[in-house]
Amino acid sequence: PYNYQEASFTYPAITSAVISTGSVQVFMASSLNPGYWVALPYSALTTEYDFKINVNSILIEVIHSDNSVVPNPGGLTFKFVVIPSGMKKKNLDYSNYEAVKAAYNL
User: Torsion angle of alpha carbons 77, 94, 42, 36, nearest 10°?
Assistant: First the structure.
């Protein structure tokens, strides 16, 4: 058994072209390290954080596999980075928010 929560965010920058040939990166503020951003998907012990994208929206999912209470992801802090087609950079660590921030002047 597991517990599950999700939150949906409207994000118009996610177009069908971005889904087909661009990229969407999702980062969550770390509760243990202020100022540090964790790339999704992310797992810690019995908790999994993941996301799904659709045109104009992002769905954040939080799953606890130990049947404990799951926080509503709508109460967590996220950053969304939408990279249009043709803007992706080779050799960039997309799981590192600081590297993505520097590469795209965010």
Answer: -50
